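User: Teach me something about this protein's shape.
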Amino acid sequence: MSSPEIIEQNGQKFALVSTIKTVETNREFHRNVQVVQQQRAVAIELKKRHEQALTDNEKQALKKKLDETVKSLDSNNALMAKTYGFSLLRNYLIRFLKTRLYTPLTDEEFAKMPAEEKAKPEATKTIDGKLHAFVAAIEGAEANDQFRQNVQLVQTQRSRLVQLKQAIEKAASAEEKAKVEEEFKKSEEVLVKNNEEMVKRYGFSLMRNYLMEVEESKLYIAVTEEEAKKVGGQAAA
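Assistant: First, the predicted structure itself:
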């Protein structure tokens, strides 16, 4: 019997509880996570309001709402645990294994696509009622981690350029303005270079909107050292 997959991140061990293998089930999982997280937020707010209520009638009404919310939350959380191994009571980690990247297509862009390209089954896809062009498939946990880190990097760099542009407009002196303009120029050069690399590697550019569809992911829960050893011992047995 093979040992369950255990990984470590930032000093914390995580044990694999499920592999989610289709676009639809990944979408459903994330929708369900949002539902239980929202329910938990509502329950916390209701509990706070109940504790601060000044009249018995108000306390009773809030207690009723709180009990109903907690009951529904417990039921949904139990279903999530049964279906995915997910629970709000545990910290968890998702690793993406397969991601498909798409960009929205205008009617004009679609009309200009070569016929042989349009004929390819995966060249275009209608997502949420809008036509999208397939850009890239990113496979493997490391490649997916790297892609998301790179996207976050260029988005952060773009936000920094916006801040610098505003600082230039608000500069109190010519000297300060020149200093910020120099930083803006250097930052812009770095962003252009990084964006070009993103286009080269993934077909991704900050100049377009994108949609990511997760095709396969793995869900892990945080475990203590003792739990990790126990899991390994059970597998060995």
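Now, about its shape. The helical segments are 23-52, 56-84, 107-112, 115-118, 141-170, 174-202, 225-236. The mean pLDDT is 90. If you'd like, I can walk through any region in more detail.
User: That's plenty for now, thanks!
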